[in-house]
Amino acid sequence: MDPAIIEFIGEKCMISIIPNFSNEPLHLIYGSVGPFRAGFPVFVPLWMATHLRKQQKCRIVPPEWMDMDILEEIKEEEKRSKFFTKMPSEHYMVVAQLVMSTAPDDVPRCEELRTVIKDIFDIRESKLRTSIDAFIKGEGTYAKLDNLTLLEIHSVRPILPYSLDHIARYQRTATASQRDTSMLSASMAGSSTGPGSNSLFSQ
Amino acid sequence: MSDDEITADLQAENDVDAEAALVNDDEEDDDDVEQITAQKVLEILETAWINEMCAPEILPNQTDMLELMVSQVSHMEEQMRDLDKNDFRAVVHSMELERVRYIMASYLRCRLQKIETFTQHILNQEETREPDDKRLSPEETKFAKEFQGHVDEYFHKVATQYMPNQQRGELDQRIVVPNLMSHVFLKANVAVPAVIVGVDDEEVDMAPGSQHIIPYQLVADLLQNNQAQLI
Amino acid sequence: MNFFPNYYSIEDIFVTQEKVECKVNTKLQRMGFLDAGAEGDDLEPGRSINLPLWYIKELKVNNAYFTVSVPDIYKNVHKAVCEAETTHIELGRLHPYFYEFGRYLTPYDRNHVIGRIIFETMRQRVRHLLDISKNDGQMAKSELRLDNIETKLHEAGVRTNTQYINWLQMTGNKILISELVEEHQKKRKRDRSDDEGDSLPSSKRVTL
After folding, report:
1. Which pLDDT tens digit goes with each residue over B196-214?
2. Is C7 on the interface with B (CB under 8 A)?
3. What is the pLDDT of residues B7-25, one digit of tens each?
4. Contact across the interface for B102 and A8, Cβ inside 8 Å
5. What is the domain count for chain B?
6. Cβ of C4 under 8 Å from any chain B Cβ?
7. Phi and psi of B194, rounded to 5°?
8. Which CDD domains does its entry note (chain B) (predicted)?
């Protein structure tokens, strides 16, 4: 799942626009949007918003969370928290990226916002790396990843799942080989090291 | 022409009966004719698409949903024919149809890739499945068999016919199988208690919306029941 | 797709092509040709010979003919593994298929150390791999540093990072010519210039 697909999925997000035309509702497969009244905000999918904006048919209303105070707060919270905090949108990076690149004029303090959003992403990404560190040190190859967004997951895909596949494969090989010994030594000396033992060569 | 004629509502045009009821039986009452909206069909296809991209093995086919969506798409194209190409409505509708077509094409392509990689393995598994549990569509089965036939014929012509019989008998060894213990990213749709997550029978209760990285095989059944989806 | 050995995977063929040192346990008549230093036609017990892994792996671990000697490379990293200091090891220099070769040899290791060693080595080094593929592509450039599987993981990591950066800069939106078509175009160009020398004006060559 590369960034283009993640963007495609994120483009389904609804976002508010102010059209400069009026029209009856459109019955899209994904659901109905509209009616459109010139000068009045209406929610449409992000892919449609960016298209209309490029056609000069609307202004984009940045989502509430695209605000310096709110984002600074989120950033601080993210630094404080041991866990991943819940983002205001599960596609926050895609929304920010698309809105700010298509309609920078519609976003007050666009450049500052860009920086703080990138900061948040970077903090979360490095937190992800630290937690991967801790979890690979431990036994087992399962982990919980609540509140991580697709683009954040992308930063370790496929290297993380691939690595875990190999680790798990070699763990199975090692365990199978040890089971053979422990069966032997259990019958001979009555002692065995369980496959779950974490320390190396503890016998 | 009024935009109302371009309706995305399947109910008006295509009555969808028992077939479709298979997938959303938890939502509807036992009406004689159960209906499903185009929106719901699209959601199902999208989930199937993402699951298919992320899962190491081939998943049950979505032929019913695909057929519904294909007829919906062509129906809408029919309706749009009279609209001016530059009409704002025509542009938006065709953009959406492109998106839908992309999902369907990408989904089918992804399945073909798996079929080409694990041909014999998939065919062997299909053999053991009841007619109602087949994972491949009839067309995919046909493709898989032909593909396997061509590969076998090719190998025979260029190599195995010149080899001793012993080597020709290596058919089983040559089967390529997916690594079902591949790690996947998973999101729980509902609360799922006591999921085994490790080799030592360690268990975890999954909360709705919670996300996990976990070997595929341990959660494969959750996908089938729609209790979780891959991300 | 991630590496998962199967009949057709070229890496697996390369690994099983590797030679393994074995001790001969019993006199094998007219097999002396396997031993470069043999004096007669027979293979004498007590001699050490190198046999390919693809042959060895078909024999039972406790077969009467050969005993596999565990390569020193695995013993040599033992200390580093115990001290969790494996990241600096030039694994590719020790063996280009360090992990997979080790995996095949695991059942033959009577002390049951190899299995544990490859597992722990990978576990320790993966964290480092994640780091270097994020930070730059240079550190791992030395080909000897990484084993084959690690190189692939590293490449995957670098690719991810490039994709992300391109996406951020919105440079990835152009529809690119597929690699296959591009190769084909290059080939056509080459073929033409081979066939016709440089008689054609260059503008006419790019007709595809």
Report:
1. 887 677 888 999 999 999 9
2. yes
3. 444 443 333 333 333 333 4
4. yes
5. 2
6. yes
7. 50, 60
8. GINS_A_Sld5, GINS_B_Sld5
